[in-house]
Write a structure and sequence with these properties.
With 165 residues, the chain is an alpha+beta fold. The chain has one domain. The chain is 38% helix and 22% strand. Strands 1, 2, 3, 4, 5 and 6 form a six-stranded antiparallel β-sheet that branches. Strand 3 and strand 4 form a beta hairpin. The protein starts with a helix and ends with a helix.
Length: 165
């Protein structure tokens, strides 16, 4: 099985069904969850240098404030008010290992599919999804993202200009 086929299998057999259990809808490699005043968005981004034999990718994760993105039916990374990557949700010891580096995940034909899947599962089950589940309100968004350079300031500006805070 090629790296690209392994990635596709993991998306189909783990990521899509698991995110669905958390209330995420899906279109392609974009998942979103309606949280009332905002959407939580997760987008799998493949890198341009990928091949069948080696795949590098990351997850763009953030929120989209509904008052800014009116009538949004299928939110994606382009609609994010705050955009981060999976590293924000991972402890330091999880950021660099055989399958993950500062840029994102890396998978080659030689890699063990089960071990790679296990790493994705650990990251999502123990870190990413629990952290995203804590964000239930606009104040939670400000608490989580408010101190992030650029995006935190932009979030506060958007909320202020729309009389949300």
């Amino acid at each position: 099985m090629t790296a690209k086929e392994i990635q596709a299998k993991i998306i189909k057999e783990y990521l899509k069904p698991r995110l669905k259990t958390f209330g995420y809808l899906n279109s392609g490699q974009n998942w979103w969850k309606d949280n009332g005043e905002f959407f939580t968005i997760i987008q799998l981004q493949n890198f341009s240098w990928n091949s069948k034999e080696k795949v590098d990718f990351c997850f763009n994760i953030g929120i989209s404030i509904k008052v800014v993105e009116k009538n949004l039916q299928k939110p994606s990374a382009q609609n994010m008010t705050v955009q981060t990557r999976e590293n924000l949700y991972l402890p330091t010891e999880r950021i660099e290992n055989k399958y993950h580096n500062k840029t994102g995940y890396t998978l080659s034909n030689e890699d063990d599919e089960t071990k790679f899947l296990n790493e994705i599962v650990i990251d999502f089950e123990n870190h990413i999804l629990p952290e995203l589940e804590k964000i239930k309100s606009i104040p939670d968004c400000v608490e989580k993202f408010g101190d992030i350079t650029f995006f935190g300031d932009y979030l506060k500006k958007v909320l202020y200009e729309n009389n949300i805070i």
